[in-house]
Write a structure and sequence with these properties.
Structural class: mainly alpha
Number of domains: 1
Distance between the termini: 57 Å
Number of helices: 9
Strand content: under 5%
Number of strands: 0
């Protein structure tokens, strides 16, 4: 089979995988309409707060592994960074606009955590313990995620500055921008809840 055709099929599969919203499925199993509680986002942080820590952690792990599974295998096969970035993008598009959930998805932050392993693996190894310490201290997912992505990018620039591997940082930054924009749009369009 043609290598480029295999990559195209891989990209299609990553969109389908991204469209499988684990948080939505877990909440439906629990009988919770996650879109009507908290932030309305069927992601790990909202499920952690509104359904339970164990469920939120499960969603985080599954979504992170989803991201890992779309980029790291390509990295290990020494694929070009463009294909790895394309896999991240297609997976994020599935998270944002899932075919299985009427194109109403989540913000994709946990999935991007995982996808970063194929783009800047050494940067991720440096950033992960720092982000975990930040989360242990603050219990703030947003700030911990920001620290993770910031440190991954800075470390990636320093580590990969001598070759084209630094493009992985550019692609990761593009993914961060997409997730940030999706969050802004999604949260801005939701009606205000009385508390």
């Amino acid at each position: 089979m043609n290598t480029e055709l295999m990559y195209v099929l891989w990209l299609m599969w990553t969109y389908v995988l991204g469209s499988t919203l684990i948080g939505e499925l877990i909440c439906r199993y629990k009988g919770v309409d996650i879109r009507k509680v908290g932030t309305g986002n069927p992601g790990a942080a909202n499920i952690w707060r509104e359904v339970g820590k164990g469920y939120g952690l499960s969603v985080f792990i599954f979504d992170t592994m989803k991201g890992v599974s779309v980029t790291l295998p390509l990295r290990l096969l020494d694929a070009e960074l463009e294909w790895i970035a394309g896999s991240m993008l297609c997976m994020l598009l599935g998270q944002f606009f899932p075919i299985f959930f009427k194109f109403k998805g989540n913000t994709g932050m946990a999935a991007l955590f995982g996808a970063s392993t194929g783009l800047v693996p050494l940067g991720v190894m440096i950033a992960l313990p720092i982000a975990l310490i930040k989360f242990a201290i603050t219990k703030n997912v947003g700030w911990s995620g920001g620290i993770f992505f910031g440190v991954s990018c800075v470390a990636g620039v320093v580590i990969y500055r001598s070759d084209l591997e630094w493009l992985g940082v550019v692609y990761l930054m593009a993914g961060c921008i997409l997730v940030f924009v999706k969050q802004l749009i999604q949260y801005k369009s939701q009606p205000k809840k009385c508390t």
